[in-house]
Design a protein that fits this description.
Order of helices and strands of chain A: HHHHH
Largest interface: A-B, 34 and 32 residues
Structural class of chain A: mainly alpha
Strand content of chain A: under 5%
Radius of gyration of chain B: 20 Å
Number of helices of chain B: 4
Oligomer: heterodimer
CATH class of one domain in chain B: Mainly Alpha
Number of domains of chain A: 1
CATH topology of one domain in chain B: 3 helical TM bundles of succinate and fumarate reductases
Strand content of chain B: under 5%
Chain lengths: ~120, ~130
Amino acid sequence: MAYMTDRKRVIGLGSAKSGTDHFWKTTFTSVALLIILPMFLFSFGPLLGESYADVQAALSRPFPAVSAALMLIVGFYHFRLGIQMVIEDYMQGLSRKIAIIAMACVSYGLMAIGLVSLAQIAL
Amino acid sequence: MADVNRGNRPLSPHLQIYRKQLNSATSILNRITGIALLGGAVLVVWWLMAVATSESYFATVDGLMTSVLGDIVMTLCVLALWYHALAGVRHLVWDMGLGLDPEDADKMGWGIIIGSFALTFLTIIAI
């Protein structure tokens, strides 16, 4: 053990055999969202209540479209990781597995619907 | 592995006798806001889908989102977003090994609460 680094010791360990992977991804996406969140809030917020033509025109421009796409991708991925942590804290056995899979379907499903909608608006 | 310390280990907090602290409240709120934001995310995706579908469908969904109830829900979403973001920043600070003693954690706790309301107020004004 004396020649092992801390990193070497945690890789592949833990109950899920994935070491600190889940924690790192949550941290990584949280830092990304600190940048993406203001971009999204201030480009998406003003569009609520605008006319249909104005909304379509705005979401066809790069900045609002990219902000919304990043928010959908990184946000829902962060949510998927976070909700899995919550489920693992409160549920056991088969219901835990079903809940994790169901929430993954909800997260990726909503992400896909949002991204396809954005593509349809822009094209 | 045999547990030589059986019976003398720290227990997890039992909710019946747990003394509430600012830290436990802010931590639970972080989890609640994270889960609740799924609701806000569904509304945003539904709105985007409506924009992609048709003008009449957009009018329905947009009307719902900008009604009084929609405004209240969207404001609460912004509050939850900023709260969750600031509480996340506190976790990043903790991960660096800083601010872990109770006084500093409490100070950051109040910072999160006051900061999230302030940022929500600024966001509403800016938008």
